[in-house]
Amino acid sequence: MGLLGFFAVWEAFSRLGPVPQQYLPPPSLVLVRLAELLGDRMFLLDVIASVLAWAIALGISVVIAVPAGLLLGSVPAVRVATRAIIEFLRPIPSVALIPLALVLIGSGPNTKISLAVYASVWPILFNTIYALDEMDPVMVETARSFGLGRARVLFSVALPNSAPFVLTGVRMSAAVALILVVSTEFLAGGTSGLGSFVLDASTGAGRMDLVLAGTLVAGVIGFAINEALEAVHKRGLRWSIVGQEAS
């Protein structure tokens, strides 16, 4: 109902509002263009290019951030030694690094993947660190009393306990990675991707109906990704949800 209400307001504002329809086409027109685009092979290739870059970036982010978070969260000396550089790098917007990335990497897919990785690492990293901070020390002491070493405790106790926090970080990073991939395609240009499609549609003839149709596709992809990760959380980590409800 909320979605229908949004489209109704958009339709009314576009047809009756002060903004000309050429700048804000109504959803009835945008959805028709969207249906046409779904049958366009080149547009589908652009969608696949963006989704593939997103998947690669998110996978690399998980591989980097989870081990780094476990290390920083379990070894206080390393955490203190790296705090300054981490807090210096974390606030830097990834889009501000686009000129540097273009010089160092070029304008190919590696640029958008690298920037998406840079932006996506932080939520997973800090969620993993926070998970270790919130872990009950009695669990660690119990594992050590059974003769488990540091590495065994880390992977058999700390990592399973951190899983709900890590997956929450992955959900946050999934949205960030998609935003960075599409934004980099739009701002840095390129030969494929949703951002490149939106850029081409907005220049020249200024087809705002195509721009909004491409934007809607990006929103639908982001919504589907979040719903899929939430389903994984509920089904794969049901024990953590039951524990939260019991507490």
Give an overview in words.
The protein is mainly α. It has one domain (44-246): MetI-like fold, CATH 1.10.3720.10. It is built from eleven helices and no strands. Helix 7 crosses helix 8. The chain is elongated. The model is unreliable at 241-247 (pLDDT under 50). It is found in: Cell membrane. It is a multi-pass membrane protein.
Q: Give the SSE string.
A: HHHHHHHHHHH
Molecular shape: elongated
Radius of gyration: 22 Å
Counting DSSP E segments of at least 2 residues, the number of strands comes to 0
Pick out its properties.
247 residues; mainly alpha; 0% strand; MetI-like fold
Short summary:
The chain has 247 residues and is mainly α. It is 82% helix and 0% strand. Its main location: membrane.
Helices, strands, pairings?
Layout: H1 2-16, H2 27-37, H3 41-74, H4 76-89, H5 98-104, H6 109-134, H7 137-145, H8 150-188, H9 194-202, H10 208-236, H11 238-246
